[in-house]
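Internal QA ticket QA-208
Title: Verify multi-chain structure generation after dependency bump
Assignee: T.L.

Test input:
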Amino acid sequence: MIAMKKVLAVGLLSFAAGASAVHAADVTIGALFPLSGPNASYGDVFGSGVNLAAEHINADNLINGKLTVQYEDSQALPQQGLIGMNKLVNVAKVPYVLSAFTGVSKAISTTAARTKTVAVNGGGVGPDLADLGPYFWNVIPLANDEVRAMLPYLVKERNMKRFVLVYVDDPLGEGVRKELNSTLPGVGGELVEALSVPATAQQFSGIAARVRAANPDVIYIASYGSQQSQIMKQFRDNGITQQFVSYTAFSIPETNALPEAKGALYTSQNIDWNSSDPVTKRFVDDYKARHNKMPTAYVANYYNAVRLFGLLAQELDKQGKPITGENLLAQRIAMKTFDLVGGKVTFTENGTVISPMQINEIDGAGGKVAAVVKE
Amino acid sequence: MLLLQLLINGVQVGALYALIAVGFSLIFGSTKVFHFAHGATFTIAAYIFYYLYSVSEAHWILAVLAATAGAVAFGVFMDRCIYAPIQRHEGSFFTVFVASLGAGIIVQNLVGMIFGRGFVSVTTPLSRSIELLPGLYVAPLSGIAILCAIVFFGALQIFLMRTNVGMGLRALSENPELVRVYGLSPRRLSTIVFALGSLLVIPAAIITAASSGLNPAIAHHIMLISLAATIVGGVGSLRGAACAGLLLGMSENLALMYLGPQWSEAVTFIVLFLFILFRPSGFFGRAIAS
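Actual output:
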């Protein structure tokens, strides 16, 4: 009986050892997305791109072991984001974290730098995100690029010169305000009023009165999530008929479905969804098959963020190097160019992607491209 | 004209705040239960109305009735199935509060799972403003909000002052033991209070769905307003809560005349702070002698 127990114990131990050996080869990366609260719909959109990329990487056996993603709920709030980041870095010990929202990204950047963990942003566009150190990368063009792409188009091609900015009182909104202030005079426009709103504000009828009084041609909305939709609905309800303009944040389904958003213009990076490039084609086809709709720039960004990890980890595996933040950073600098959705992608020295921009129009039927801005 | 516009907007927003706050104040004043899930009641009513009216295209009366049934059923459920068992086991005020907070979070997540976590709104021509004078825009919904507030407060006052049940409810807020001595059931009265408090939130929920739109996390904002209005109005004073709701709505909007919009929420807290400092018993609350 004792001998049998020994055999069983040895068997169990070897099974456990085998199981842990399998786990040791698996790779986990982290994702800090809003999964609850008024910006939770962004978490759904971002996650759809992340999951598809992980699925493709595992199907292709791109890296040794299975890639899994550990999600933490940032609620799009810096404090919650930092709690999630600490858990990912100190408990799960991930080498690579996907981040979103300017405030959250700025909050976690110091932890990323201190622990040499790569943080990759595909959703926040505050211009400050370009200067958060070598371990912070952006796979999305930042707000300054987006604003610079939009302004000449509005002023020169649509003859809209008087701008009112309604911006959320956070680093993103502040970044957009600074960019409008500095760029508008150069292209022949004028910022006649800049109204900041708290991130939690839900009543905008009073602000609509201030906007009407300023008599603008264009209202630039620098907010996100439910709030940007509330602003548009309440502005239209309160007699504002002028052009709405924004940045990539408008590319979420709830904003595209809003009747009051019809005709609104927003910038995003230029991606040809009909491209025959194999990475883009596979991404678009599989996304459409799973979700029965076209992907958006956000989905592509987070797909790219995970694919970028897959490509870097593949190279590190080949070289026999461990997948650590330091090695991932060194490998990104060494490789320079990557085959991602949208074509070949390069990064600036500060770790921000270089991309042409496009101006999209919400038409109530999935949106259309109004113009492409190459520079 | 900007001042007049902001004044009208303030009255509309204030009427909504008053409707939101008075239900919470009634429940808190009568039962001493910090019904944090009052915001969840608002969310349930608003989303039922949105789903039936905008998605299923049911008649608006049917949607209102269903929203009412959903909200009242939730309020009664919270009282009977959550608070009563806790209180039966001598659960403290804090235990009840935590249970209510938990229920609110569960509802928020359930609503997100069922209706989606994005922004939704009810599209109706009633929310579209009409230019009454040059530069002065007023939506028919503003008039409806003000009318609802007047009708509901009037009806509530009559109910509380003129009916036996109403008098029982007022007695409950004073002394539950004495209520029992007089042969009334505090538990039954408590259930009526929750049903009534939940009913009062219906017009605000429906008007908000059409005017500002909804998201599953809207309950936090609702509770913020309810709490601020209850303190400013005086705990247990329905008139106070109604006036405080109106005051907060008007302060938020009139502040826009001189301050940036980022200060509008701060104005709510400045009003709250001033009341706590200089009139801690609120508008109509009674001073407590030590």
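Spot checks passed. Chain A touches chain B at residues 36-38, 40-41, 43-44, 169, 195-198, 200-210, 212-213, 225-226, 229-230, 233-234, 236-239, 252-255, 258-259 (CB under 8 Å).
Status: verified.
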